[in-house]
């Protein structure tokens, strides 16, 4: 009689947006061979079709896993965001379907911080316009509007992994660093927190955003906020496009209130190289435009490929949800002999008692039980000393427990 876990070659893995080949290596080394790889994001209709059969999906920031897409993903049991941001995934729908979502919270932070620092220098020296002019045969050899960054004030909005790393690097170059965060954050080096966003805007020569996309950060930089910035200051956004009102930024630049800007992320971004990039910022000579490449370095992508794939493998093999962004976190020992199963359920009284009862009825001894609940949902991983196989009615009995969302037998 066969084991109840799904064989590894039957576990279908859909990897999109050209995630690094390290991810494929990690899956293959762990025995997973059923991998479909796409270099680009898929159109929504194609995505809906492909995701129907997928157990594991790996994406980057482009693919939108909306409630509707998740709804049709009947077999999906985990999602890997091969990036930091997880705003592209409906975290609530995935949780309620029992699908943990993993990301790589650190692997590309350095890449973003380095790019922002370089842009700060380029903007303070007026390089975008000078570069463009040279390409046209011009020669703007002038110090007008060009400044060292030494002694200038960099205002960092969002002092998390990227913001705080930027703070250290910028200070080493001579920037005076101030920051604003809604959470109390330990100032690194000589950086100082300020009380309000407005204070930061009024004090900074360069403002750089490093906040996530949340309802509170949407359009947090609009006409009023740009008006609060010093005349001649510079603005950088490598966080999320939704945080900035782009027409208001374009106005602040065209009116010469701001001296320059560098923007890596946009409210609407092209799907790929064949799709035209449309923005009010195009053609402004004092603006550096980059195609959402803050985290796109060889080092970052290779690390992310490994990190996220390892989390997905650990979850698939052992049930570990450590590092999940939307889900009850359970860190587990590697499964030993016997059977391990996971049961994701609505957090109602009686579920755990019923699981114990079913094991008892079959004469199985529970050797390990790892439970986490979040008020609304519960996640338990159970180890028993016996090999649970087909024909014993265990799967059906566990599935029949009221409130069961998902049941999976691990290897
Ligand atoms: N351009 C690119 O390629 C990349 C962009 N990103 C973006 O950068 C963002 C930041 O990344 P991390 O620093 O790793 O995130 P993080 O979560 O470590 O830090 C975000 C910080 O923002 C703060 N924050 C949240 N809401 C705020 C508000 N309304 N006002 C002020 N502060 C607020 C948080 O308290 C936290 O300290 C990501 O969420 C992602 O959207 C990340 C990597 C690459
Ligand atoms: O890590 C993030 O949040 C990013 O924005 C990078 O996204 P990407 O993997 O380059 O699509």
UniProtKB/TrEMBL annotation:
Pathway named in the protein's UniProt entry: Amino-acid biosynthesis; L-serine biosynthesis; L-serine from 3-phospho-D-glycerate: step 1/3
GO MF term (any one): phosphoglycerate dehydrogenase activity
Catalysis: reaction(s): (2R)-3-phosphoglycerate + NAD(+) = 3-phosphooxypyruvate + NADH + H(+); (R)-2-hydroxyglutarate + NAD(+) = 2-oxoglutarate + NADH + H(+)
Signal peptide (UniProt feature, chain positions): none
A Pfam family the protein falls into: 2-Hacid_dh_C
InterPro entries noted in UniProt: ACT-like_dom_sf (IPR045865), ACT_dom (IPR002912), AHAS_small-like_ACT (IPR054480), D-iso_2-hydroxyacid_DH_PdxB (IPR050418), D-isomer_2_OHA_DH_cat_dom (IPR006139), D-isomer_DH_CS (IPR029753), D-isomer_DH_CS1 (IPR029752), D-isomer_DH_NAD-bd (IPR006140)
Gene Ontology process terms (BP): L-serine biosynthetic process
CDD domains (UniProt xref): PGDH_3
EC id: 1.1.1.399, 1.1.1.95
Highest taxon listed in the record's lineage: Bacteria
Domain ACT: 340-411
Keywords: NAD, Oxidoreductase
PANTHER family reported for this sequence: D-ISOMER SPECIFIC 2-HYDROXYACID DEHYDROGENASE CATALYTIC DOMAIN-CONTAINING PROTEIN-RELATED (PTHR43761:SF1), D-ISOMER SPECIFIC 2-HYDROXYACID DEHYDROGENASE FAMILY PROTEIN (AFU_ORTHOLOGUE AFUA_1G13630) (PTHR43761)
Family listed: Belongs to the D-isomer specific 2-hydroxyacid dehydrogenase family.
Role played: Catalyzes the reversible oxidation of 3-phospho-D-glycerate to 3-phosphonooxypyruvate, the first step of the phosphorylated L-serine biosynthesis pathway. Also catalyzes the reversible oxidation of 2-hydroxyglutarate to 2-oxoglutarate.
Protein name: D-3-phosphoglycerate dehydrogenase
Gene: serA
